[in-house]
Amino acid sequence: MRKTLNRSFIPFLLVLLTSCGNSQATNEKKGDSAGTVVSNSPASASNPGSNATPFSSMTPIDTAAYDRILHELANGDSSGKWPVKAPYPTPGAILPYHRIVAFYGNLYSKRMGALGEYPKDEMIAKLKGEVKNWQAADTSLPVIPALHYVAVTAQGAPGKDGKFRARMPYHQIDTIINWANEINGLAFVDIQVGLSTLPAEVPLFEKYLSMPNVHLGVDPEFAMLGKGGRKPGSVIGTYNADDINYVIDYLAGIVKKNNIPPKILVVHRFTNPMIRDYQRIKRVPQVQIVMDMDGWGDKILKKSSYLLYEKRDPVQFTGFKIFYKNDIRSGADQLYSPQEVLSFQPKPIYIQYQ
Questions:
Q1: What percent of the chain has pLDDT over 70?
Q2: Higher-confidence residue: 28 or 196?
Q3: By the number of CB atoms within 10 A of the CB, which of 16, 29, 49, 190 ranks highest?
Q4: Helix (H, G, I), strand (E, B) or coil at 98
């Protein structure tokens, strides 16, 4: 059996960079492919929807309920690591008062995840079905649907600036947020930096992150500067605590500036070295951190990795990704059910389907 989880098996988008004459990028993910993409435009993004979303409430924190739910999420853990000690969040916090069930992907790719693989109506119906399943499995927490959109994708070709990443057009982000609004859900923008950096990419989405129902994901798998600038996909990338703390400080600033509820930061992880010096990651009232167990494989491998990389190295909250196709390579019975995942210590509060 493999000693570590497989890579998250995110296929690179094949990008036709017409402005610089590059040919389509070579796919690094075992033959998967996607459609042609245009580079992001610097034009202003429209605001899809009012700030008066179901997630803009500045309800004061019920600290007693907060402590009780954290204890329940620890699920009998006796290591002393869970619940994680952290300051109470600012008013309007989504976690831990809700569980989030998200579909992940990109509208240019049918191989990148459920978001993009299916037509809109079919995808939304499937997401609602998963939300219903999770709600039935745990009636103690309301379940919120979410659309987790990869807005900056790692590439197999360098592109005009040599950064091995492509920024998606703003109109696609508008579309995702509108879809999320239609189902009273959350939207996440996700960033794979390639040879770029978080300070170069994250601020591009400030007008979206200033909306109460839009949150952020970052993916160290494709962060390659710490790997000698190698091409994404050739090795597993990495972030250190300083990288994550930059994002936390940036998001905290947005929350303070706009007087909105805390932001959720999802950090993907499926090996220990992907996040170095995790002990130094900040915990602040304005940002809620989810460490998302992101690899695919059979049940034993996935649970073992969850215990090694999420339970053993506590940050704040945990997430768990389920791969509709890759998790069942050794049999359909290897797809985790909500009831099975809820037996983990600690219980994940963010669930992502790809």
A1: 85
A2: 196
A3: 190
A4: coil
Predicted confidence (pLDDT) per residue in 27-83, tens digit: 233 223 233 233 333 333 333 333 446 788 899 999 999 999 999 999 999 999 999
Contacts 24+ apart (CB under 8 A), 334-338: 334/298, 334/299, 336/299, 336/302, 337/133, 337/137, 338/133, 338/134, 338/136, 338/137, 338/138
Six-digit token pair at 167? 């920024």
Per residue in 235-284, pLDDT (tens digit) is 999 999 999 999 999 999 999 999 999 999 999 999 988 999 999 999 99
Are the beta carbons of 37 and 108 closer than 8 angstroms?
yes
**Residue 215 CB-density burial (10 A; 0-12 exposed, 13-18 middle, 19+ buried):** buried
pLDDT for 183 beyond 90: yes
Count CB neighbours of 93 within 10 A: 22
Identity (one letter) of the amino acid at 212?
P
Q: What is the DSSP letter of 326?
A: G
Residue 296's DSSP bridge partners are: 6
User: 130-147: per-residue pLDDT in tens?
Assistant: 999 999 999 999 999 999
8 Å CB contact between 195 and 70: no
Q: Which of 228, 222, 230 is nearest to 269 (CA)?
A: 222
- The overall longest dimension of the chain from CA atoms, in Å, is 59
The DSSP code for 265 is E
Q: Would you call 140 helix, strand, or coil by DSSP?
A: coil
CA–CA distance, 300 with 235 (Å, rounded to integer): 24
The model's pTM: 0.87
**Residue 325, number of CB atoms within 10 A of its CB:** 14
Q: Residue 144: CB partners within 8 Å, gap ≥ 6?
A: 94, 98, 99, 100, 101, 131, 184, 185, 186
**Beta-carbon neighbour count of residue 171 at 10 Å?**
13
Helical H runs in the chain? 63-74, 114-117, 120-137, 170-182, 198-201, 206-209, 241-258, 299-306, 338-341
CB-CB contact of 293 with 309 (8 Å): yes
